[in-house]
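Supplementary Text 2. Reproducibility record for the structural model of the 168-residue chain.

All settings were left at their defaults, and a single model was retained for analysis rather than an ensemble. We include the record here because the model underlies the residue-level annotations in Supplementary Table 4.
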Amino acid sequence: MVRSVLRVSPEVWDKLDTPHKLKQYELNTIKEFCDILQPFEYSSTEIRLNKLESMEAFQLAATLDPCYKLDWCHDYDNEVQDIRDLLTVKYNMARSVDPTTTDTFPAEPPPMKRNKFFALANRSSTPRLIPSETEVSLYLNQPMLQEDGDPFGYWKAKQPEFQPATAP
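Retained model, structure tokens:
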């Protein structure tokens, strides 16, 4: 805020009807003051935010905010994957699914009565993801809202698509 005083042009200062107008030496003092404090600005903000970023609740809230998703985190030590895993576990818990299950194959479908060729053609050679991983990826791969977007409106509109995440 103090720095914004320095951005005001002298013409604007002259037009202001104030009992005390800043003199040039006062503006120079403000500039020196800002220069001295500038190195501390980033570090104090960084220290305060780092405490939040390690909190599970913050990680989930920021990731579930469609304006930010995983854009806020750094990929240090697989942080992005860790947060994806955390979101998947919490999503499974919301769906009352055992989050410790590692089975990536759904239950076997009932035997098909069609020709064996079609049965083989419908099988996938790669393991399929469990639904929660698919839904988490679907959400994270969708475009983010603009920063002034409405996260509550987003989740209201997506309620049928992401049932457990939007449950009251």
